[in-house]
User: Which sequence fits this backbone?
């Protein structure tokens, strides 16, 4: 009823009881978060067969006129595939023990 989204109250209580006191309460480590972001962005780029976006360009003054330009950029599907594979690899690789 009144529990947090995505985690059952019993699981949350177990997690809080069994964590080391000096460690923060994190459900995912930074590597996992980066991997999930890479997988999501890679999937979006692949789903749209590349993404095009524009950025403001330079302002041109000609005969008293002010002309605003834009620069168009394209992210090819290959970049999305690389991001997707990189995210999957990050999820699968075990951390090195020192």
Assistant:
């Amino acid at each position: 009823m009144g529990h947090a989204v995505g985690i059952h109250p019993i699981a949350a209580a177990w997690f809080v009881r069994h964590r080391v006191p000096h460690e923060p309460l994190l459900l995912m480590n930074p590597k996992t978060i980066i991997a999930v972001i890479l997988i999501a962005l890679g999937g979006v780029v692949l789903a749209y067969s590349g993404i095009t976006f524009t950025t403001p360009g330079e302002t041109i003054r000609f005969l008293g006129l002010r002309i605003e330009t834009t620069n168009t950029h394209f992210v090819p599907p290959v970049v999305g595939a690389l991001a997707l594979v990189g995210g999957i690899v990050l999820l699968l690789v075990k951390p090195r023990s020192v």
About this structure: Residues 29-92 form one domain.
